[in-house]
Every structure is written in C-alpha cells, then in structure tokens.
Amino acid sequence: MKNHLSFFLASKIRIKVTGKNTDKFIRKLVTAKVELLNIKHLKRNCTYIWIYKKDYPTIDRLKTIYDFDVVDAAGWIKIRKVINVNKYFIFSLIIGLACLIILTNLIFKVEVIHNNKDIRDFIINELREYGIDKYKFKKNFKDLNKIKESILLEFKDKIEWLEIETVGVKYVVRIELREIIDKPEPVNNRDVVALKDATIKKITAYSGQVVKTVNSYVKKGDTIISGVITLNDNTKGFTAADGKIYGEVWYNMTVEYPFTYYEEKYTGKKNHALVFKFLNWNFSIPKNKFYKTVEEKIILKNDLFPLSLTYETQKEVEIIDQVLTEEQAIEYAIQLAKDKMIQELDKDEYIISQKNLKIDIKDSKIVLDSFFVVYENITDYKEINEEMIEETKVD
C-alpha cells in the first residue's frame, strides 16, 4: 500500500521521442539505467515513454539526433499544477468547509424552557460557569451529563429535574423545580364585593354570608358576600369572606377595518440559520420558506470570490393581502371586535351576545360600533373597617 502511494505521488512525465530508429534511443536509456515506466510505439520513428521527472536531465543529455517533447505529467508535479491553476477556488472552498465545520460545532443560542424569567436567567448564568454559552463549542454527551449532575447535586433542594439537549446549533434546557409549599399569608377580615356594575349570574361562597341573590343588579363596590357574621340582626363576629362571583357585564366597542389591507404579520416563531451565498444563490441551514431575515451577521466574505457565509436571525411571516367588498369588510370588522373582546376575557369568561349598534363608511374603511354582553368574573374584596370591629368588641 505504501509503495503504491509512493508511486502515485512520484513526479512522472510522458515524453514523445521522434527520430530515425527510436528503438536505438530506448536502448541508450536502458544502458544509462533510466527507469522506463511505460513504452508505446506508434511508428518506427515515434515512441511515447513514461519516466520519472528526476531522470529528465539524463534523457536531455542523451538525445543527440533525436527530438523529444514533454506531452503529459502525473503524480505530484501534476497535482501541484492543478492546485496552482485553481488556487483561488480551492482556497475559498477550504475556507468555506472549515467555517462550515466550525460553525456547525458552535452554539449560537441557549434556550431554557420555563415560564419564570428569573429561573431562566438563573440557569443560563449557572450554565455559563460550566462553559455552556453562546459562541462556545458544543460539548459531548458525556460532558453534558456531568454538568447536569453537578448542577442537580449543588441545587438538590431546589431543582427536581434538569435536561440539556443539543438541537442543531443551540442547547435546549428543560427544568422542573421542587414544589415548595408556601404557608398561606393571613387574610384580614373582608367582604366580597362587585368589581364593576353587573347583573349577578353565579355566586359561589366559601366563607361569609351571602347578602345578594342571583339575577340582582349590583354596582361597583356593593357587598355580595359579607364578612360580618350576624344572628338575629346582631353582629356576632367577623371573618375573611371568600368566594367567586360571576355577572353579566356590558361593553361598547368601536373598531375600524379598511377595504384594502396588506400586512406582513409575524407569527411569533423564530429561526436561526447559517446561510451560504454564492452570486444570486442562497443555501440555508436549516432550510426555510416562510421566514424573513430581521438580523444578519457576516461571518465570512471574500472580495475576490463571490462567496459569503452569514448567521441570520429570522422570523416567520404570515402575509395578509386583501381587497374587500363592503359586505366582507363589515364581516371582518365584526370578527375583529369579537376577537378584541375575547382577548380581554379569561378562560372561564365568555361573550353572551354581540349586537352591532352602528356601521359607517369613512375614509375607505368600515367604522363599527358594537355592544357586548359578557359573562365575567366580577369578584373583588374590601377590608372591613377596623372601627366597626372595635365598636362590636365594646358592645
């Protein structure tokens, strides 16, 4: 194998020998101990010979009446020629491949999945101490496990479970904290009152005395569940009233919707990609169709060769392009008002009814006034006056 490689790399040339009786010239070369690698006779006066390049001076000295030309080359001499002719392309290719290898082994984002920002920041800072950070080389599975075990051991009273996963050019860290049961803070004596004007639709009392009925109208601040405990019209004590009150609440809303509408709407999804650019051709890792670049960092650029490598932050875009009739615009306006109303409600709240009060056309858009009846949580609390408590104690 080694001899075969040495022969392949050795510099060799092919010579065309012309003259009277080239066999005589070949015998001269044999006598001079020139190693002939291959001989091919075309005619009596024309022969092609492969020799090592190092033997070329000997042949030049022995040629006498014969003419010869170098017509081909092989081995290292040819490799060097190919490299020299294509040196700029090869250099750009090597740099591009090197950058690709380096960049695919770099981390560009550390994503901690937890709904508490303070916890996310704490874990990111802790991982940074172990060399897990943006623009650092990826760690292997064994090293990630060691880091995970170290963090779990250090914070065994706080962290229940931790997982570090390599996804493309980012780390995805999932964490679950140990449940710590907090002692409930003491609640002062209070009433459950109406948060806003409404018609009561549901009363759920956990403590205290209910003083209003379902379908009764209340104004903001009216007591619905009292924390004053009475017996035969006499005050016997006080408690922290608790419960949930749902009521029928009323809203007016005005929205506008244009007949012609264009919007590039971000969906909230983000993507990070390495993008190779060659003339007008782009190649993205990972590939994408619906993402728009919002930030671009040039990693590699060659002024002599039209090749560049960039790191892009992209956002997914949903394109809305509409030209509406009057009926369509009204329909969209009604839905827009409904969507805005829903955004103001919690999961256990809903729209009972929607009525369109007024529809106008103004400046190429629909102006819609809507009236909503909503089933809504109207629970609020009001502390019982301390003076009232003291007066009861004196009595």
What does this structure look like?
This protein has 395 residues and is of the alpha+beta class. The chain has four domains: 2-81, 2-Layer Sandwich (Alpha-Beta Plaits); 106-177, Roll (Ubiquitin-like (UB roll)); 187-259 and 324-395, no CATH class; 260-322, no CATH class. The protein is 27% helix and 47% strand. It has helices spanning 2-9, 22-31, 56-62, 76-85, 87-103, 117-129, 141-154, 326-343, 386-394; strands spanning 12-18, 36-43, 46-52, 67-74, 106-107, 109-113, 136-137, 159-167, 170-177, 190-194, 198-207, 209-210, 217-218, 223-226, 228-231, 234-238, 242-258, 260-278, 281-285, 291-301, 307-323, 350-361, 365-377, 379-383. The strands form seven sheets. A five-stranded antiparallel β-sheet has the order 13-11-17-23-22. A four-stranded antiparallel β-sheet has the order 2-3-1-4. Strands 12-14-10-24 form a four-stranded antiparallel β-sheet, with no helix packed on it. Strand 22 and strand 23 form a beta hairpin.
